[in-house]
Amino acid sequence: MEQPTSLLEYALTVIRENILTGKYKAGEKLSTQDIAEELGTSRTPVNAAINRLVAEGLAEAIPRRGTIVRQLSEEQISDIIDVRILLESYAIERAIKNVSKNPEKIEYMKELLYSFDFKNADYKSVSDFEAEFHRTLVKLSGNEQLLRLYDTNWTMGYVSYFYTMAHMPDEKHKKFFDEHKTIIEYLESGNADELEKLIKSHIMSLKLA
């Protein structure tokens, strides 16, 4: 019998969160029994959730070993960052054209920026802010397929992004955060060339952190 969706979603949310925050570390085996006991559920929704995470790329099924948290190589992380730059750069011109048609999205980006307490935020909060801010920029392009590709790439890259933010020098944190205000300014002024340069340097800094 199929497990209720609510339990599956609960297991998926918790396991994904534990991977993204580093509670379940790269290379660690995902024990269905242990996780089920931890969540207070049967193994069925946990199994289904782990299978979903394998499909997302956060976990990896290894023959005769079981399923482990996927460990990305430096080259894979670099590729993920390059793809993010490619997708956001492609979205820029279309997003600028849609600014006047979708003022609520620009207002939402401003709300995210000005309501976020950067000084007192932990690395997960900063990572979540970055994800939502840039996802809204891509969403502003109006291209749903582009957004799906972006979401898939971001899921793969979140763990490495979280790690990068945790190891980024404090003096770079403020500059990195303040660049979001300039991104909004370039969107509103329609300055595609400068916005593309900023987006590239902004994301590329994750390689140099």
TrEMBL record:
Residue stretches making up the HTH gntR-type domain: 5-72
Pfam families assigned to the protein according to its UniProt record, in alphabetical order: FCD (PF07729), GntR (PF00392)
Cited InterPro entries: GntR_C, TF_FadR/GntR_C, Tscrpt_reg_HTH_GntR, WH-like_DNA-bd_sf, WH_DNA-bd_sf
GO MF: DNA binding; DNA-binding transcription factor activity
SMART domains: FCD (SM00895), HTH_GNTR (SM00345)
Keywords: DNA-binding, Transcription, Transcription regulation
UniProt KW DNA-binding keyword: yes
Name under which the protein is recorded: GntR family transcriptional regulator
